[in-house]
Amino acid sequence: MAEKGSLSRVYDWFDRQLPVTELMENHATKYPTPKNLTYWWNFGSLAAIFLVIQILTGILLAVQYKNDPTLAFDSVQRIVRDVEWGWLIQPMHAIGASFFFLVMFIHLGRGMVYGSYKSPRALLWLIGCALFMVLVIAGFTGYLLPWGQMSYWAAQVITEVFSAVPVVGQTLVEWVRGSFVVSDATLSRMFTYHIVLVPILFIMLTVVHISALHKVGSSNPTGVEIDKKEKDKFATFHPLTTAKDAWFGLLVLMVFFAFVFFAPHYFTPVAQFIEANPLQTPPEIVPEWYFLSMFAILRSIPEKLLGVVALFGSVGILFFLPLLDRSPVKRAFSRPIFRWGLLLFFLDFIYLGYLGTKPPLGANLVAGQIATLYYFLFFLSLPLVTWLEAKMAAKKGAKDE
Amino acid sequence: MPDQKDDGEIIESADNTQTRRDWLLISTLTLATAGTAVGLWPFIKSLNPSAEIQAQRTSKIDISAVELGEQLVAQWQGKPLFIVHRTKEMIEKAEADDGGTDPQADSERVERPEWLILLGTCPHLGCVPRFEETDEYLWVCPCHNSTFDYSGRVLRAPSPKNLQVPPYRFISDTEIEVGEA
User: Fold this and answer.
1) In terms of residue numbers, what domain contains A343?
2) What residues in A contact B49, CB-CB < 8 Å?
3) B167 contact A CB<8A
4) What is the pLDDT of residues A108-131, one digit of tens each?
5) Assigned domain for A129 exists
6) Closest chain B residue to the Cα of A175, Cα to Cα
7) What is the CATH classification number for the domain harbouring A110?
8) Is the CB of residue B30 less than 8 Å away from at least one CB of chain A?
């Protein structure tokens, strides 16, 4: 046997003490992915790309940022104007948040269309929902940090939401804020949650999410599980998927950087350029676009406690999807009722987002209430839909015979 | 000594051993859970408002500079406090009815009719209503358009309740103390 090169001796030294080869083979070079995956399956890796962008830019921002109400607003302006390349890093983080949410929405939607929450991927779906909740917390805590008017008042409105809890409501609000109102104490803790708690949870859950995925394998557009023995229907993750992910990732990053370079404030409301003033509410409080649908649900219910329950329920109900939808058919296109229900659900979600920008008065209020009702009805009617579809299939089967 | 099978599994000879073991397991787990909860308590409590913030529970406010028909926005617990020096007409409007969806007599909301003292946060979601004198209302909330009358009572939803009257007392004719220690 020929003498080994020094490089491979180094590799061997690591491989003897760490499962390097094992991990690479199990998760990349020998991990099988179905060949028939469409571009809708790219959004998981896209989410990972944006996670990396948020972490890298976030670390650099945290270096320059000052988490004190008297300094916070100016420190963000300073980052953009005076810090070298700050003009690039700050908008990357801000626009990155929007793209992260967009990618996550599409990723969730893909999961709903192709039944990715069904056996054997129920746990995978639940971990994904937890990741979505962490993203919501990240978005909320991060939005306070620039300490603009919209930062301040959005935080004020959302923390006030806890006052709807019976008996302990006010105590809970003060516990969340660390004060009677959103203030220095609130900014410090939201900053800490945003840069410590959120990344830890995000990275941990991502590892668990990918582990679960690689245990059960990817779903595929046919909605029918492919037998592991049909080797010709799979390709290894590397190079097929890595190449496809890289190509599609670059495509999305082009759009992303178009925003960063040419429209860095596209998603920033005007009020964000005014320093937070606890004594003056801006004329209109509108959340970031990715919270608009949830905001519309909160506002469409005039009863405070119910509104808050609906707000949390709108995210929480995602966790119950595997339980509510017991149909064995995975692909929405193959289900006569569900496919229209799901299409309407997506339109309903977008429409709620539109209503979130309008004051909840008159016709808009009624429309918001109908849209909110459908949002929940879609989920809660799933057992009935499944039962009806099974009946239809049985009838059709009898006719065919 | 208990018998031992070839694979090392211990066969319990006495019948009551299993329940004894269950009891040990359950009591250990219960204690561990209680211990964890007790251990977490300081961590949870440390997130409460700290002593120097708690000290702001009461504030003294000088009201001598508030002109008739004007509103002073003071601060109490970091929250805006509306102090309105009401004119005769304003008092008449406030006393004419009991408000809207959360009826209450004006006399129950003021200590001295010419001084209306209110917490300046909308009971809906905590925005600061805008002082805007019209025939119908005196405040309108910029967030969701709730309106409040000359006694700070809600006229138009989504606010479920009237503007809150904080606990306060007159120290003198020109000074009040807001809050309860």
Assistant:
1) 286-391
2) 174, 177-180, 185
3) no
4) 999 999 999 999 999 999 999 999
5) yes
6) B48
7) 1.20.810.10
8) no
